[in-house]
Predict the 3D structure of the following.
Amino acid sequence: MQKSVFDSVLIRRTRSVRTLLICSATILGGGALTTPVYAQEEAEVDDDRIIIVQARKQSETLQETPVTVTSLGADTLDRFQVNEVADVVSRIPALNVQVGGSGAGGQISLRGVGTTNISAAFDSAVAFDFDGVSISTMRLVQASFFDVEQIDVLKGPQSLFFGKSASAGVFSVRSANPTANWEVGGKASYEFEEEGYTVGGYISGPVSDTLGIRLAAQYQDIDKYVELEAGTPSVFADSGKGLKNFVGRLTLQWDPADNFSANLKLNYNHNEGDSLLGHSDIDCGANGVADDVFLAVPGVSIASNSTCDIQDGLYPHPDGHPSLQVIAPGTTGADRYNGQSYNETNTFFARLAMDLDVTDSLTLSSVTGILDLENEHLDHFSYVGILPDGSPGGLPAPFSDGLQQYTQEIRLASDFDGMFNFMVGGFWESRSQPLQTSQNAFIATFIFPDSRGITYDWVADRATKSEALSFFGSVSLDITDQLELSGGLRWTDEQKTHRTSFPVVHNALTFLNGVIGGLGLVVPEGFQTGPIKFSDSNISPEVTIKYQATPDLNIYASYKTGFKSGGIDNSILPTAALQFVTPGFGTDAERQAALDSIVFDSETAKGGEIGAKAILANGSFRINTAAYYFVFDDLQVQNFDGAAVRFLTINAGELTTKGFDVDWVWDTPLEGLSFSGALGYTDAKFTDTFISSDPDGIPGNADDVDLDGRRAARAPKWSGNVAVDLVVPMGDTLEFGLNGNAAYSGSYFAGNNDFDDFVQDSYVSLDAAVSVGDSDGKWKLSLIGVNLTDELWANTVGDRPFLPAGGDDRVVTQNRGRQIFVEAAFRF
């Protein structure tokens, strides 16, 4: 397709600005050698109670920033074995995290707003920010993290400072930096329920007066990350599916001059498990019967091995019969599949942050990010299946996908003594997301191989490339010593190009195409869609007024907007209608209908919040509150139709979420005893037409399901937690520690399919830890219990693939069950 003059100019402009951003970072790196040195004021030492956050891309105390933030420090993370994103849920009301399941590898929801885990085509509505770099894949929720300095969860749209993938909030992880003095630390733990161990450590200190280093690594090996139901067929007759994690990080801090600093982080993570499905169980629906795996065209059924018990902590994930599954040579899984599931991810992450004080009141900052992620997995997405002879009968689908992401951000911020200050900047992101998979959906090809021996309906190669460019600016006015008015906006332009091809199609489908005639049943072998393009631009404004009533009371109100780009579904199936996306094939109306079925619109948000942050009782009591109201237009949703074996990529007309948050900390008069907690009220519901399913594909029919007026998924009305921390001296050198946390969640819908969706009942989970150790932190022995009551709850629910007529089995993704750790840690 020929480009217009406007398109050509825009492409040249985008490339020019991208080059300018990258060159600016390079110049900044060299600035330390050429810029005059200015004296800096000596920084004040932070009190232990002061928490520093970067909610507005600048260091502010938690109490002074006019943003709703929940912050967890390193002590809390270590105390309760927080090793992955999902472990944070018990401390953050209205936060829901699901690990594993399907295409995206996980999802994060806040206040009832999130993005499906089915497809990796969607950016997350809750941005995952790792050391200042926004990561656009939820595969990282599977990865373990450690040696973390702080986790901050920012609620509500944060597009001004964090960009296009923060329409519902930000989950921010900051890893630890080099220490001023040499320090060595480590820990080892064993967990009894899942039978796993974790060992890790770090060394940190100054190499010279200007260079600091921190080297950290952790290894984790779990035997029964997922424990199988009795009788579940397994190739190796093992009762559990394991998980192994290795993560290593090198951090360098370079301060060659008073006005320049650079911080480099190199992070590698290897995640290897025996399952991608994770904690996904089968709910047998209203009929209480485990439905067979059914392939419609030949009328073939495979018996289910599910017990229909989703509270036993056991999962019915069978392996596959290797003799019935032959993968096309040269494609994903062909060189390693032996019937068993696997999931392997390698992630390399690099981040370079540089700050240059151009003058004593202007700072130029650069953040460069590189992410290279490769995942290969094969799991049995029938979720159940047992052959007549009792051997494994799961229907596997091998996948390989990845993400190559490059980002560059440049910011110029002022620190004037007067009433006016500003921040301006630019951001560029380039991404490439390949995806290859072999799949079954239409016929039982695993029973009869084609002439090449292949037992899959097709092989699909799908690839999406995108480029985003944005500029942002904010200003703040200190109208008086107590009153601050701030605001700004971000302009974003994003371009995406998707291509799908089907290099292999089973002979039987090709034969049926010839019998049916015309378009046939599916696209022919070798079909390629050509480039399918999507582009959109957006302006996201924000304005905040903050009143510092007293040094210990901060009151604020803000209007915020958010944006998340649309795109092209990368779960495209090779139905015959797909051919209409090719220019010149079919009528304009047919082409548009085909595109409408796979292209989804951008998601936007607007609304506001008012809040107050107070410190009372001479600093011993802190309470922060906020009330909010936000409207999300064109919320991006993907559902799965289990009977038709198809993905439904849609935009919900409107979702309104409103409520309030409260969190507090009380350091009691009794030395060493403190209480903390949080409470959230969320009223999130669809407030406009939202056709969540349309079985016959004809809009306006009686079979359409409109969720207008229904509560959003994963949005409990009430949620909260209460924690207690006690440290008691035992002589001059020992101390005893006791810690506990109780988290509550009200009931909520777990899916976005209909008014009869699975409802997760309210629940309470309990964590506790007891420890004894050196009062200076040189060593500590701990006994840690996570989810002591072994409470299992549903994170997401959707149709189980390959349902027979009238079948109502549902896939329920759950949290991990009870974990009991013993841990030894040291530091010197």
Summary: The longest strand covers residues 483-505. The CA atoms of residues 226 and 241 lie 5 Å apart. The chain has two domains: 1-36, 64-250+259-265+288-347+378-427+434-827. The radius of gyration is 27 Å.
